Amino acid sequence: RQDAETREHREQCERRQGRRRFRDPRAGARPPLLWTFPGSGNTWVRLLLDFATGLYTGSVYSDLSLLPLLPGEGACDARALAVKAHPTNIDFHDFVRMPGESVRLNVTRKPEYLKCARLRFDALVLLVRDPYASIWAEYKRSLAYRVSVANVDVLPSAACQAALRSQPLHSGGIPLSCFNATHFASRARRLARSWRHMWFHARKAVGLGLRLHQLSYEQLADHSRREQALMRLVEFVLSNDGIGGGSHPA
């Protein structure tokens, strides 16, 4: 769901920075996985990359709510600048080493990502955010998804459900009167275990030979550090394209 203010901001970016497009898949580029824990700012970083390069980022998912802002949503091949994935869904065990330097996803193990069968990548962008902030952001998003999309009654009243349905899926809040501390604590513990396990899979991925660029959400949110952090990210993402330079792992 897109409000008027969001739509106006997007149109301003397009007027200033130009229209975005897909890459020519015949160029043979290998888009890195934008591999982030849920709630870490993946959608925001995709927007930054889209408008910094004029190229669409893609995703192993197909979130229709993101299409108005990110028309590359769902693209999982060489057309995309980078491809979104979460380590909670796709981890090191889903990576298959190919002859040469590239890796593919094991779509036999995860047939729900069959559309990504042709995707080849040799790098990961690991976006990290304070775990408390990312867990809270993901809890709000997942709760809103269950109420607004899956139509699961997880809130105590129709008023609470209506309040969540009236907000954007990826940036809404939870009214204090609707907050269930017991439900949050249970979900937060599971997410905390997943956040810790992400680092195990990141180390394994590097051992597989994948290049890694790590950056923090907090760097991008800091006005004094944002420009340099974004420049390093763009250079890394384009580094296998014949456009950018070498990698800048953190």
Give a nutshell description of this structure.
This protein has 250 residues and is α/β, with parallel strands linked by helices. It is built from 7 helices and 7 strands; from the N terminus they run H-E-H-E-E-E-E-E-H-H-H-E-H-H.
Which secondary structure elements does this structure contain, and how are they paired or packed?
Layout: H1 4-17, E1 33-35, H2 42-53, E2 58-59, E3 83-85, E4 95-97, E5 103-105, E6 123-128, H3 131-148, H4 158-165, H5 181-207, E7 211-216, H6 217-221, H7 226-237
Parallel strand pairs: 1-3, 1-6, 2-3, 6-7
Antiparallel strand pairs: 4-5
Helix pairs in contact: 3-5
Walkthrough of the structure:
- The protein is an alpha/beta fold and 250 residues long.
- The chain is built from seven helices and seven strands; from the N terminus they run αβαβββββαααβαα.
- A hairpin with a 5-residue loop joins β4 and β5.
- α3 packs across α5.
- The two termini are 35 Å apart.
Primary descriptors:
250 residues, single chain, 5-stranded parallel beta sheet, 7 helices, two-stranded antiparallel ribbon, alpha/beta
What is the average per-residue confidence, as pLDDT, rounded to a whole number? 83
In whole angstroms, the N-to-C terminal distance is: 35 Å
Helical amount among residues, as a percent range? 25-40%
Number of strands: 7
Strand order of the largest sheet: 2-3-1-6-7
- Rg, Cα atoms, Å: 18 Å
Unreliable spans: 242-250
